[in-house]
Amino acid sequence: MKILKKHRNLLIGVSIGDGYINKNGYIDIWHSPKQKELVDYKYNLLKPFCKIKPYTIMRGGFPSYGFRTQSFPFIKLLRRILYKKQGKTLSRQILNRLGVREIAIWWMDDGSMSKKINKNTGNLRAAVFTLCTCMSKSQNQIIINWFKEKYDIKFGQRKMKNSYALICGTKEGRKLSKLLNPYIISSMKYKILIE
Questions:
Q1: For each successive 10 residues of the chain (195 residues), what is the average pLDDT?
Q2: What CATH number does residue 31 fall under?
């Protein structure tokens, strides 16, 4: 099967978040059963590359709901590009392949938003948006520069346990939310700011 450019970009998008490319060239997508809508959304996008519908299995003593793609040479190549000794690595060339839909998939996997509400008025005081990339400071800087140049969204970064995460406040988060909103499924809308 020939993989078109739009499908290659989609396969990249699902692989940089919670998708895992194993050594045999399959992409594994597994989530908690509570995230069934997200799994089904990804499956419907990747259906041409799958033989089996999503199902539930026990993983580490807990139920997981998900699926696996078929193996393709492109996915094997993608594994070599994304996976280095230090973990997943994103180059500028890979980031340039991401459209807004792929960024939204990444955000639904690894993004979060926390809000502070004014107790008296019930209005939003502030929001913090975090993208847990689990990458190094220098690796995150590549992503920060890309977001600023491509979408005029300014992220900073903060130290997590053994890595760094991208972070932005209310103003930049509003821009991010407006960009991603059309591609965020209903059960994941809590990860963006809708006003």
A1: 83 95 95 97 96 94 96 94 86 96 98 91 90 92 97 96 92 97 97 89
A2: 3.10.28.10
